[in-house]
Amino acid sequence: MSRSGVAVADESLTAFNDLKLGKKHKFIIYTLNDSKTEIVVEETSSETDYDVFLEKLPENECKYAIYDFEYEIGGGEGKRSKIVFFTWSPDTAPIRAKMVYASSKDALRRALNGVAADVQGTDFSEVAYESVLDRVTRTSH
């Protein structure tokens, strides 16, 4: 339970474990249910194109997301993968929604074990591939 009284739905944890352990998903978009009492899965996808993920982030609505972020290591070390937690809270979203998402984030974040990096996005420049790449490579050194 979060400070806002919002709970994390079991399906939210199941989807995360499917991504982390089963590699069934590339990303998960989370939202609050209609009564704003539970964090639920809005969508899962196995689409590997990062731009497709970004297109799922609405311009005027808050969301949470998990992305299995793959990137190349320099010097021929190959690919690495980090699980990234996104809090998407665009400047154009309603203030009330931003407040509820901000106060509910910790409940979801604590429930998801194995997240390597957190990204807070208020506009698309903050969640662009290069910005996230910079964040995950800094946390891995």
Topology:
Layout: E1 7-8, H1 10-20, E2 27-32, E3 38-45, H2 50-55, E4 63-73, E5 78-88, H3 95-111, E6 117-121, H4 129-139
Parallel strand pairs: 1-3, 5-6
Antiparallel strand pairs: 2-3, 2-4, 4-5
Main location: cytoplasm
Keywords: Actin-binding, Cytoplasm, Cytoskeleton, Nucleus
Subcellular location: Cytoplasm, Cytoskeleton; Nucleus matrix
Summarize the structure.
Belongs to the actin-binding proteins ADF family. This protein has 141 residues and is an alpha/beta fold.
The total count of helices amounts to 4
Please tell me what the overall shape is.
globular
User: How much helix, percentage-wise, in residues?
Assistant: 25-40%
Query: What is the N-to-C order of secondary-structure elements (H for helix, E for strand)?
Result: EHEEHEEHEH
Overall radius of gyration: 15 Å
Unreliable sequence segments: none
Structural class assignment:
alpha/beta
Features:
4 helices, 32% helix, 141 residues, ADF/Cofilin, six-stranded mixed beta sheet, 6 strands, Severin, actin binding, globular, alpha/beta
Detailed description of the structure:
The chain is α/β, with parallel strands linked by helices. The chain has one domain (7-139): Severin (3-Layer(aba) Sandwich), CATH 3.40.20.10. Helix content is 32%, strand content 30%. It contains four helices and six strands; from the N terminus they run βαββαββαβα. The chain has a six-stranded mixed sheet, sandwiched between helices. The protein is globular and about 50 Å long. One of its GO terms (molecular function) is actin binding. InterPro entries: ADF-H, ADF-H/Gelsolin-like_dom_sf, ADF/Cofilin. This is Cofilin. It comes from Scheffersomyces stipitis (strain ATCC 58785 / CBS 6054 / NBRC 10063 / NRRL Y-11545). Residues 5-137 form the ADF-H domain.
